[in-house]
Amino acid sequence: MSDKILELQSVDAGYNGKAVIRDANMEIYGQDFIGMIGPNGGGKTTLLKVILGVLKPFRGKVIYYNVYDDQRVKRIGYLPQFSVIDQKFPISAQEVVMSGLMPHHGLTRRYTREDRKKARQMLEKMGVSHLKNKVIGELSGGQMQRVFLARAVIGSPRLLILDEPNTFVDNKFEGELYEHLRELNKEMAIILVTHDIGTISPYVKTIACVNQQVHYHHSNVITEQQLSAYNCPIQLITHGDIPHTVLRKHQ
Amino acid sequence: MIELLEYQFFVNALWAALFTSITCGIIGTYIVSNRIVFLSGGITHSSFGGIGVAYYLGINPIWGAAVFSVLSALGIEFFSKKGQLRHDSVIGIWWSFGMAIGIIFIYLTPGYAPNLMTYLFGSILTVSQGDLLFMGLLSLVIVAFFFFFYRIILYISFDESYAHVFGIPVSLMKSLLISLVALTIVVNIKVVGIILLISLLTVPQSIANQFTRVFSRMILYSVGISLVGVISGLLFSYSQDVPSGASIIFALILLFGLTKTVFYLRGKLRPKN
Known about the structure:
The complex is a heterodimer. Chain A is α/β, with parallel strands linked by helices. Helices cover 27% and strands 24% of the residues of chain A. Chain A has a domain at 90-157. In chain A, helix 4 crosses helix 5 (141-153). In chain B, 82% of the residues lie in helices and 0% in strands. The A-B interface holds A 52, 54, 74, 78, 80, 83, 85-86, 88-92, 95-96, 99, 102-103, 105, 107-108, 110-111, 135-136 and B 33, 35, 148-152, 154-155, 157-159, 161-169, 209, 212-215, 218.
């Protein structure tokens, strides 16, 4: 496979000398859509930090393939976990989206007309172009996540990482989000961290269970038995026989 | 009024008003947006320790204040991180510790005890040419810094961890910014004094915030508003023969009350649809 983006080789990583993740191995390819699940404290966020390059592993290697472009910009998009932002902070939605271009611009370069246009297009794509001049704190949870998704993809990343994007948002946006992701997946690999594998299961292509170690599951269908074999004690929310049983048993 | 311009001290005061408005307008917007008003209060008060020590050693108090305020700005961050203490508790401790050091050293200094009131309440009319040089230089530095790093400052202030992920030197930038906050405080102590300074860093911004919610405009409006406030306070102080620091703050708060009322009434009167 030539479109490999990222490879983790026996990575140990954590904080203050204590490893949260041990011997993690993973390969990510250009067309991947990985649902990442695991218990709280199992190391999902730590693993993301390693992939983003913010946290240096104690041991092992993180190898990027074609992630850096000619200008040595790391082409990874990131939608952080929903965090409480300052409601009064004086920044407009459009400026937030443009901040996604910061790795492309160095410390002092100012934004061009082109960048503004791009930001507007992104907001348009997410269906919130009418909010471009609104202060970010005035937006609802769903509108805010749309803006943050626009920020994550404005730099045309090769890999998009989303950390629990479906917390605190309305159901309408959740459905829309997955459709956006399906569309974006044509151009970039996606890692989606979630606690609700049941809902996203039809959208993701593969599943990674993170609990100290990383177990890669080459399918979007997973059973309770398999999860326990992966040492991944998360509660599966089966949606019953009707309307859809996404967590059907493997043959 | 025109004859006032014949007095060198008054011309100096006008220059001071301009530099105060530039430094406090820009830095105050950073402080207010980042909600570090209490931290800034702590830095302001702890700088008094530097003034006391400098007096004792017989050097220019502004140098003492500069060293103390920059060190306390960086120190508060350091201790709350490494000492695992609550950030605001560290500020509270530092705040009073600086004041205590200042008082002890000033009383230890033999001979004439300097007029503490000047440092506590300020006096824009006693600003010297040397003070103006400092203020002018710092204004230049701050304007240039915010011009070149505007976006980065905005992004770090808004979402620090996101900036960190994309390789922005967040802690370096934050240290530089907090040092500029400390220096702004130091050069403006002469103008309104330690006790009143925090309002120059918050009131113009609160007025500006009623007109705009854009960071860059907040900076520009704050500079203008603070210029209006400082000069009217100065004239009021001259005409009524009351301390200038207090009149400046009074003028600014009056302006705040007026704009707030106007915006409140406008909101009330606007027909609901």
